[in-house]
Amino acid sequence: MRIHVVDHPLVAHKLTTLRDERTDSPTFRRLADELVTLLAYEATRDVRTEQVDISTPVAGTTGVRLSHPRPLVVPILRAGLGMLEGLVRLLPTAEVGFLGMIRDEETLEAKTYATRMPEDLSGRQVYVLDPMLATGGTLIAAIDLLIERGADDVTAVVLLASPEGVEAMELALAGKPVTVVTAAVDDHLNEQGYIVPGLGDAGDRLYGTAG
Ligand SMILES: O=P(O)(O)OC[C@H]1O[C@H](OP(=O)(O)OP(=O)(O)O)[C@H](O)[C@@H]1O
Ligand SMILES: O=c1cc[nH]c(=O)[nH]1
Ligand SMILES: [Mg+2]
């Protein structure tokens, strides 16, 4: 597993406003969207392309286009939905699948309540979206499922990670074709499994509801 922490002043600026408890839901949604587009620029660095011959009004030339099969983007509901537009802005022809997952706030175990994506992901590049990598339970279960279905290159785009979550993913996904792209790795997880300093509950802050 590879981890890439995007070091850029605009990323740091937007992340700071996201963290701020005074930021309201509409602003949080807009900033999350902008931040994902910046992260997506890094996350798609290895997107698969093929050579293509075209003619400009002046001359023939060779360029590139995204190869087939097209990448699959999978937001993890609910909070990952707030990252979808920011990513498909850069990959408008990507297919989109959905995973609904919820973490039990007592046991911190992730449960899957919805799966809507192709059964066969053989040879597919997949971008999985979830703002928070806390214990890692959710992303590990999601990525295991994607790899079981045949995905051979998985990039998780997250806004924030904890060191504990990164370590859990490194252990669980050792040797697997997985990259994590994040805006920051924070200090630690607290006893409730929240990232510290973090930004609180991403789903609640995106959608203005609790639970
Ligand atoms: O790394 P983990 O410890 O598994 O925790 C991270 C998960 O918790 C949050 O989702 P939540 O369960 O709150 O669901 P929601 O998106 O519906 O709010 C978050 O969006 C991740 O999916
Ligand atoms: O800090 C955290 C941990 C899990 N889920 C969140 O939304 N925030
Ligand atoms: Mg939540």
TrEMBL record:
Keywords: Allosteric enzyme, Glycosyltransferase, GTP-binding, Magnesium, Nucleotide-binding, Transferase. One of its GO terms (cellular component) is cytoplasm. Pathway: Pyrimidine metabolism; UMP biosynthesis via salvage pathway; UMP from uracil: step 1/1. SUPFAM superfamilies: PRTase-like. Uracil binds at I195, G200, D201, A202. Binds 1 Mg(2+) ion per subunit. The magnesium is bound as Mg-PRPP. Its cofactor is Mg(2+). It is an enzyme of class 2 (transferase). InterPro entries: PRTase-like, PRTase_dom, Upp_B, UPRT, UPRTase/APRTase. Gene3D superfamilies: 3.40.50.2020. It catalyses: UMP + diphosphate = 5-phospho-alpha-D-ribose 1-diphosphate + uracil. GO terms for molecular function: GTP binding; magnesium ion binding; uracil phosphoribosyltransferase activity. 5-phospho-alpha-D-ribose 1-diphosphate binds at R78, R103, D130, P131, M132, L133, A134, T135, G136, G137, T138, D201. Allosterically activated by GTP. Its EC number is 2.4.2.9. Residues 5-209 form the Phosphoribosyltransferase domain. Belongs to the UPRTase family. PANTHER family: ADENINE PHOSPHORIBOSYLTRANSFERASE, URACIL PHOSPHORIBOSYLTRANSFERASE, CHLOROPLASTIC. Catalyzes the conversion of uracil and 5-phospho-alpha-D-ribose 1-diphosphate (PRPP) to UMP and diphosphate. This is Uracil phosphoribosyltransferase.
